[in-house]
């Protein structure tokens, strides 16, 4: 196991250097989260071009969108993207923070088509609006449903679900 | 939406008119394995578009996790993908262990891998039986469920329940293997390896099965990766992507997993991948039994866990693909956020791409071949 971690560490270092070189000053933070997970925080404005850079640059090739989650941090909302690079063998966690009063971010469906349902889910559960999404409607709850159930402020009877 | 709508469209052949119509399949169709609704847009015998409508089984699992302690959460993972409970539990406890930065006793890791692989066999057997049932063959499901039942009975001796086993714990497993378990398991594997050959003989050479699955629902590797497809569906398209080797966890690197890959990318290739995976699982279990070490099966843990502030994204290879949990801890007893990475939710998304231009008779064949569990799609 220890040896495996070392191999992964080296891969992560390579990816981190490449991201740092390519993005210049366009990211907020860059760190190693787990033994094979690079963490990258962005401002919402630079999301699309960064995503394209991450997907298309040789040596990075984050073509596989593993997961897209909305997070309610109470003072802000977050969208977290988990990406895999099948060639580099490394994963990357991309975090974008959105203000509570206007949670809007560009849709990444043009870059990873698999984001389509994930973004609808985040819209359904958190009310995050994805600009440029082909069909941003509710997906898991009913069309007539009111509210966004996974927000911390959403009322639940007796505090239990 | 009205059930059937008629839109006359122009035909290229003069005098012949064909109509495009919407056809509703589900929410309770026998071959949808759960509550799924497909709105098919068909022109004659050809499917021009499909819209899956999901959410009928939505139970708010992620909200439930936020309102339960970490230990209570394990039990709910059983109901997310109800055909691979052990692997769900493994993903969840793995994520909590990553938050705690905890080392699990080696015997526990071996036991986990043994039950994971048994679960994979059981899940593939259900898929095989029901898929063949969808295609009109009744015999295989009897053989499949006979062997699956044997596995469920073994699970019963582990956790006291056949389905919602609730066997894994943060830091290990509930209890050591009961007396006689390993002997029974070895006997089962010895018999089962021949059963796989029998099943393959029964199904593989059947002309009807081949006609209905070969060149049906073909998925290119580029399309699969772009959509985030994982598991046997992606491996059937020639992509060597298996979480057990891509993000190795537990003791899989020591066992040497060989991902099963096929290149043709059609429904038949997915069948082949799953059959070969059952053989691979048998091999992995046998290797795990050989190397099973002694010692404790559970690390010493407090009853009420309070993981430090942080995040973890832990994924495992479920029978359907990449199953994972993204946990955020705020230092309290409950997860602040527990996001499930559901393989079927993502895999189902590609259905319109696979079905556009297909014959209406192939809808069931393609839908069955991607192996969806609606409990996990809707959560």
Which helices and strands occur, and which strands form pairs?
The complex is a heterodimer of chains A (161) and B (379).
Chain A lengths: L1 H22 L5 E6 L2 E6 L4 H10 L7 E9 L3 E10 L4 E10 L4 E3 L8 H12 L2 E3 L30
Chain B lengths: L5 E4 L8 E8 L11 E7 L2 E8 L7 H6 L3 H8 L7 H16 L5 H29 L4 H21 L8 E2 L2 E2 L7 H24 L2 H7 L7 H6 L5 H4 L7 H4 L5 H4 L11 H24 L19 E9 L2 E9 L7 E5 L1 H6 L2 H5 L6 H8 L4 H5 L1
Antiparallel strand pairs in B: 1-2, 2-3, 3-4, 5-6, 7-8, 8-9
Helix pairs in contact in B: 2-3, 3-4, 4-5, 4-12, 4-15, 5-6, 6-12
Commentary on this structure:
The complex is a heterodimer of chains A (161) and B (379). Chain A has three helices and seven strands. Chain A is an alpha/beta fold. Chain A has a domain at 2-104: NADH:ubiquinone oxidoreductase Nqo5 subunit (Beta Polymerase, domain 2, 2-Layer Sandwich). Chain B has 379 residues and is of the alpha+beta class. In chain B, helix 2 (70-77) runs antiparallel to helix 3, helix 4 (106-134) packs antiparallel against helix 15 and helix 5 runs antiparallel to helix 6. The two termini of chain B are 25 Å apart. In chain B, 50% of the residues are buried. The chains are: A alpha/beta (161), B alpha+beta (379). The A-B interface holds A 1, 4, 33-34, 36-37, 63-67, 69, 71-72, 80, 82, 84, 86, 89, 91, 93, 112-114, 116-118, 125, 138-142, 149-150, 154, 156, 159-161 and B 54-55, 58, 60, 62-64, 66-67, 98, 225-229, 239, 241, 246-248, 253, 311-313, 315, 322, 324, 326, 328, 337, 339, 341, 345-346, 349, 378-379.
Please outline what is shown here.
The complex is a heterodimer of chains A (161) and B (379). Chain A has 161 residues and is an alpha/beta fold.
CATH topology title of the domain at 2-104 in chain A: Beta Polymerase, domain 2
- Cα radius of gyration of chain B in angstroms: 22 Å
According to DSSP, the number of beta strands of chain B is 9
What does the average pLDDT of chain B come to? 87
Quick one: how many beta strands of chain A? 7
Proportion of β residues of chain A?
25-35%
Shape of chain A: elongated
Largest sheet, strands/sense/barrel of chain B:
4 strands, antiparallel
């Amino acid at each position: 196991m220890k040896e495996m971690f070392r191999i992964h560490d080296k891969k992560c270092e390579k990816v981190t250097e490449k991201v740092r070189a390519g993005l210049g000053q366009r990211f907020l933070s860059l760190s190693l989260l787990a033994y094979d997970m690079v963490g990258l925080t962005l401002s919402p404005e630079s999301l699309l071009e960064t995503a394209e850079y991450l997907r298309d640059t040789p040596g990075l090739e984050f073509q596989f969108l593993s997961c897209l989650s909305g997070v309610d941090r109470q003072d802000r909302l977050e969208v977290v993207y988990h990406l895999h690079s099948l060639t580099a063998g490394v994963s990357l966690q991309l975090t974008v923070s959105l203000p509570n009063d206007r949670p809007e971010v560009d849709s990444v469906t043009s870059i990873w088509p698999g984001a389509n349902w994930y973004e609808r889910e985040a819209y359904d559960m958190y009310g995050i609006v994805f600009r440029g999404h082909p069909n941003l409607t509710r997906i898991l709850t009913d069309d007539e449903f009111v509210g966004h159930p996974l927000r911390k402020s959403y009322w639940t009877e007796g505090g239990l679900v | 939406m009205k059930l059937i709508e008629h839109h006359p469209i122009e035909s290229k052949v003069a005098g012949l008119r064909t109509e495009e119509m919407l056809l509703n399949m589900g929410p309770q169709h026998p071959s949808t394995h759960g509550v799924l609704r497909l709105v098919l847009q068909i022109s004659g015998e050809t499917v021009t578009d499909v819209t899956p409508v999901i959410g009928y089984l939505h139970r708010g699992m992620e909200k439930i996790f936020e309102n339960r302690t970490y230990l209570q959460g394990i039990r709910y993972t059983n109901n997310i993908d109800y055909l691979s409970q052990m692997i769900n539990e493994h993903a969840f406890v793995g994520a909590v262990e990553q938050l705690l930065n905890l080392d699990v006793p080696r015997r526990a890791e071996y036991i986990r891998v043994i039950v994971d692989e048994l679960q994979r066999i059981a899940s593939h057997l259900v898929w095989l039986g029901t898929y063949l049932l969808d295609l009109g063959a009744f015999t295989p499901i009897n053989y499949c469920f006979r062997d699956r039942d044997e596995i469920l009975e073994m699970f019963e001796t582990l956790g006291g329940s056949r389905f919602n086993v609730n066997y894994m714990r943060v830091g290990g497993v509930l209890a050591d293997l009961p007396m006689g378990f390993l002997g029974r398991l070895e006997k089962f594997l010895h018999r089962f390896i021949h059963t796989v050959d029998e099943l393959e003989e029964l199904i593989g050479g059947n002309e009807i099965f081949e006609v209905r699955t070969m060149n049906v629902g073909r998925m290119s590797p580029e399309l699969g990766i772009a959509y985030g497809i994982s598991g046997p569906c992606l491996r059937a398209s020639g992509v060597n992507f298996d979480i057990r080797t891509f993000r190795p966890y537990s003791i899989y690197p020591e066992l040497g997993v060989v991902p099963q890959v096929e290149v043709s990318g059609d429904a038949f290739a997915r069948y082949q991948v799953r059959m070969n995976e059952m053989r691979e699982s048998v091999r992995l279990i046998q290797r795990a039994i050989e190397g099973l070490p002694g010692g404790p099966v559970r690390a010493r843990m407090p009853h009420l866990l309070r993981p430090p502030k942080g995040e973890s994204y832990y994924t495992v290879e479920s029978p359907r693909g990449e199953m994972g949990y993204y946990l955020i801890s705020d230092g309290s007893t409950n997860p602040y956020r527990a996001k499930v990475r559901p393989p079927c939710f993502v895999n189902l998304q590609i259905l319109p791409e696979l079905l556009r231009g297909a014959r209406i008779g192939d809808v069931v064949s393609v839908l069955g071949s991607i192996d969806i569990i609606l409990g996990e799609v809707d959560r």
